[in-house]
Amino acid sequence: MDVVKNVSEAIAHASHPFYPLEVEIAGYLANEYSVPALLAFFAAWMGVTLGVTRLIVKRIQPEIAPTELLTLMWFMLSEYYLHEAIFSAVR
Q1: Where are the alpha helices (DSSP H) in 1-91?
Q2: Each residue of 39-71: b (16+ CB within 10 Å) or e?
Q3: Three-state secondary-structure class, residue 22
């Protein structure tokens, strides 16, 4: 019973949700937003990004094939996330 009590106390006083709980993680900040809010923001941002990409491509080359447009949009997303991953590691 003492083990359960000790674990529940450690979880209650932990500064982060990762194990081992007693280790201090320098620079850790908890999310300020819930997971549904983060997913909604992600979906909205991707909608804007892909919508603007589609508008630009259709204006430059109106007769582009749908498969080519989808390929271009896929590479746009991939480049965006590669860029974010590299620069978020630098920050």
Answers
A1: 2-13, 35-60, 66-90
A2: eeeeeeeeeeebeebbeebeeeeeeeeeeebee
A3: coil
DSSP annotation of 32 = S
The encoded tokens of residue 14 equal: 């932990």
Residues 6+ apart with CB under 8 A from 33: 41
Across the chain, which has 91 residues, the per-10-residue mean pLDDT values are 60 63 73 85 87 93 94 85 64 54
| 12 contacts 21 by C-beta, under 8 angstroms | no
Contact (Cβ atoms closer than 8 angstroms) between residue 49 and residue 76: yes
Give the Cα separation of 43 and 85 in Å (integer).
18
